[in-house]
Amino acid sequence: MTTAPALAPLVARTVTISDPGPLLELLPPGPALAWVRRGEGLVGWGEAMRVTGTGAERFTSAKRAWAEVASRSVIRDEVRLPGTGPVAFGSFAFSPDSAAGGVLIVPEVVVGHRAGTWWLTTITADRAIPAPVQLTRHERATQAPADTEFTPGARAPQEWKAAVAEVIERIEAGQVEKVVLARDVVARTAQDVDPRDVLSLLAGDYPNCWTFSVDGLLGATPEMLVKLERGLVTSRVLAGTIRRTQNDEQDLALAASLARSSKDLEEHEYAVRSVADALAPHCTTTNVPDSPFVLHLPNVMHLATDVTGVLADGTSSLDLAAALHPSAAVCGTPTPAAAELIAAVEGMDRGRYAGPVGWVDAAGDGEWGIALRSAQFDAEDPRRFRLFAGCGVVAGSDPEAELAESEAKLLPIKGALSR
Ligand SMILES: C=C(O[C@@H]1C=C(C(=O)O)C=C[C@H]1O)C(=O)O
């Protein structure tokens, strides 16, 4: 693990402020930290501290560092809500073998909004005096860039379908039950893209999703890996997908067929079970609804289950995210066999796509989504982006239908990068 600067204690001060306008409009130019849904959440900028980790240790090193930093911080917090006081935004690679590792970033400035309360937190390391903060609203673009080109990433569509077919064969041979296979697409824009515009477009078009930005990974995810708030644990599990048609009546009929589809219900059941099993050791009670509901998004509909639990121990939201990752929603069942098959046939490093992304506060409360419907910005090239989408493959899956489903899942991020 490398940390820079070496885990200095933080000094954080949170004060109430009056409504400063939409959170995403407050972000100044430069690297943006964001976790926003329906106008609530957190945005941050500046960097008081960064902790990075690699390999299988990427979560452990982050958890250890944050626990140490949180316990040694000097905190003056007049608001005392989840997300006030010092917070760290984080993003972690899907695979322990990925070069992308994991990162926690503690911003210098955080602005938060929750249920009619707005707050401003300033954070410094080494007992430095925080610079005065002037909140300024920045108008955002209302349109995505024109003339964006998309090209296949690691696998052309035909090759990806062949990989899906291979996975179906392995499932039918009884080697594994479910595997989530992903593909990447490269976007090249004609002009430099301001990540803040991408965030505003996503948040405007996908209000049911959590719009996030951490260390160049941006997206709007519908899937909450885990949220911890004052001892209450919630996870929104998604698996089982159908594309929308833009015809409401037809979509309702499709939603009903999704809720009855044995293929999708089976795929969903694997994902719910993986989350409930991983939460059980940390909770006194868990509640798993008997059947899923259908979550309607503008591009797709998903089978969804909200699993809840009451925390039994002092586990932090970051620990829970590490324990839950990778759920069967993004990896498969059984996990080790599915992960092995993904590594063997996907042909790419997922980077931080499909890994946990979110934030944690000093009390351990926080929200960690699964980084889906996202793009990795290129640190060297503001016109190049890697987009990702994956699909749960089970016995009875059809490669052509999975390709179409992956395209539907790419729509939000493609739409934010191209007119
Ligand atoms: C893997 C993705 O989505 C996951 C897979 C789903 C499915 O196969 O039905 C549904 C939601 C997510 O859990 C993705 O969007 O890239």
From TrEMBL:
One of its GO terms (molecular function) is isochorismate synthase activity. Its EC number is 5.4.4.2. Belongs to the isochorismate synthase family. Pfam families: Chorismate_bind. Keywords: Isomerase. GO terms for biological process: salicylic acid biosynthetic process. Residues 158-409 form the Chorismate-utilising enzyme C-terminal domain. It catalyses: chorismate = isochorismate. It comes from the Bacteria. This is isochorismate synthase. InterPro entries: ADC_synthase, Chorismate_C, IsoChor_synthase. The keyword Isomerase applies.
